[in-house]
């Protein structure tokens, strides 16, 4: 009975706010939820008003033990329809970066968003929505324990790193989240509108590849 109660309390604490999401327990080797537990705890989440306008919750997908994690902002229209993360036009560009640029397969990485439900009209997430939702993402990070996180765009970067510094000053420079290397870069949807910025993103991605010692199959390994 006591064990059951503790399990319930732990699962509830996943979404109890960004400072109660197992963050301190991570280093002490205490309980860390797996992705299934995080998703089960989320359930048919109604913790913020976006539950009333979404069609599907977009939890995230990929390798549960990935070395590399991409974090975006929130689902768009295609993601809302399908329940899958980064599968619209911006998602196709991200997939191309992963597969054609890095030489990986998309299922080898883990991809998630700050928000799991689409804000109407793709508006920016509200602080209270982020406050209710970001605990799920933090638990996903705890569960996957990637070596590198790439944050895509201003919203993902500022909310994960808890900063208001502009993305233009943060991108391209490794920083840290709970001991995990973080590389901020531009969001693929921004690249669709500003193709000249693809060069900057490729420079950022090359730093990530170097950090993870990823070499393209058509590149020499040294
Ligand atoms: S955005 Fe997050 S907190 Fe809000 S309803 Fe969706 S899953 Fe729940």
CATH topology: Uracil-DNA Glycosylase, subunit E
| SS summary, helix count | 10
Structural class: alpha/beta
Summarize the helix and strand pattern as letters: HHHEEHHEHEHHEEHH
Low-confidence stretches: 19-28
Major sheet strand order: 1-3-2-4-6-5
The coarse overall form would be globular
CATH architecture, by name, is 3-Layer(aba) Sandwich
> How many separate domains?
1
The number of strands is 6
Average pLDDT taken over every residue: 90
Radius of gyration: 17 Å
| CA distance, first residue to last residue | 56 Å
Give the full name of the CATH homologous superfamily. Answer: Uracil-DNA glycosylase-like domain
CATH class: Alpha Beta
Q: Fraction of residues in helices?
A: 40-55%
Strand portion: 5-15%
């Amino acid at each position: 009975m006591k064990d059951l109660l503790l399990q319930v309390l732990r699962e509830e604490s996943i979404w109890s706010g960004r400072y109660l999401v197992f963050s301190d327990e991570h280093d002490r080797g205490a309980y860390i939820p797996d992705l299934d537990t995080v998703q089960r705890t989320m359930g048919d989440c109604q913790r913020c008003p976006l539950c009333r306008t979404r069609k599907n919750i977009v939890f995230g997908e990929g390798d549960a033990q990935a070395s590399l994690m991409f974090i975006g902002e929130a689902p768009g229209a295609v993601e809302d329809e399908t329940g899958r993360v980064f599968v619209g036009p911006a998602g196709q560009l991200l997939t191309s970066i992963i597969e054609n640029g890095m030489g990986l397969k998309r299922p080898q990485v883990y991809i998630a968003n700050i928000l799991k439900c689409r804000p109407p009209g793709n508006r920016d997430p509200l602080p209270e929505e982020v406050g209710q939702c970001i605990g799920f993402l933090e638990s996903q990070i705890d569960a996957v324990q990637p070596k590198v996180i790439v944050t895509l765009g201003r919203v993902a970067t500022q909310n994960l790193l808890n900063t208001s510094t502009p993305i233009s000053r943060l991108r391209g420079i490794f920083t840290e989240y709970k001991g995990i290397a973080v590389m901020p870069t531009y969001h693929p949807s921004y690249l669709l509108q500003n193709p000249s910025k693809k060069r900057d993103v490729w420079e950022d991605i090359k730093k990530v590849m170097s950090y993870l010692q990823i070499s393209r199959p058509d590149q020499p390994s040294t």
